Amino acid sequence: MVTTVPPTSPARTDPAQAAKDRLIVALDFPDAAAALSCVDQFAGSVSWFKIGLELFLASGDSVVRELKQRGHSIFLDLKLHDIPNTVNSAIRSLARLEPDLLTVHAAGGRAMLNAAAEAARSLPRPPRLVAVTVLTSVDAAALAETGVSAAPVEQVLRLARLAAECGIEGMVCSPAEAAALRSALPQALLVTPGIRPAGSDAGDQKRIATPQFALAAGASMLVIGRPITAAPDPKAAALAILSDMAKGNPTTK
Ligand code: C5P
């Protein structure tokens, strides 16, 4: 089943606000103090923050609660991948934090994805579930080593269709697959990491593109970490990206 939610919610007409709604800054920090010190620097120019395993395992609930109290939206990127009963219970357990977006691994398969969707539906304030397809750090050779001989785009499409059939409304993919996914699943929420403004260091990411490429390809929301958080001036880096996103007229290639 494909849900009929808009690609971004709520829809905005003001380009600056629409860009703000679509940028998620990844807070990959070792503890709450480091993460909140980075958040403070944005002085409200960023709405969405992603909390992944590093920060969540270090600071657990406290940083989520603090950011929610400040009015931010939270993408809890825990990439749940376990047997169906465990994933179902984990989502119910996380309900206390009321995350806005929550990731599960599509590779967990149909029964796990159904269990995840069922758990989310049962909650009074359900998170929007997003299925991770093929990690953006994985290239064709690395995928083949895991026994998947399909090209990354084929595997991304296969997993995204499976997740959509199970009632998962969002998918994580690289910008390189966003156009194919947008065409296959027009109503899906497409979240793309692997974003690198021109001249940025790729780091461990393999399937990368600029913010403008990702938006033009049909991405709903962009996840950006180090190009912003490791910049000499994170706020300036975020504002430059937001400005490009709003203009639709990139300084990026
Ligand atoms: O620093 P960078 O921009 O590479 O950060 C990307 C973020 O997105 C990281 O927190 C990473 O865990 C996350 N992510 C990813 N690829 C996926 C899913 C999530 O890079 N497929």
Structural summary, described in words:
There is one protein chain. This protein is α/β, with parallel strands linked by helices and 253 residues long. The chain has a single domain (15-247), classed as Aldolase class I (TIM Barrel). The protein contains eleven helices and eight strands. It has an eight-stranded parallel beta barrel with strand order 1-2-3-4-5-6-7-8, surrounded by six helices. α1 (15-22) packs across α11, α4 (84-94) runs parallel beside α5 (110-121) and α8 (175-184) packs parallel to α9. The structure holds cytidine-5'-monophosphate (C5P). Residues 26, 28, 50, 52, 77, 132, 135-136, 172, 193-194, 203, 205, 223-227 line the site of cytidine-5'-monophosphate.
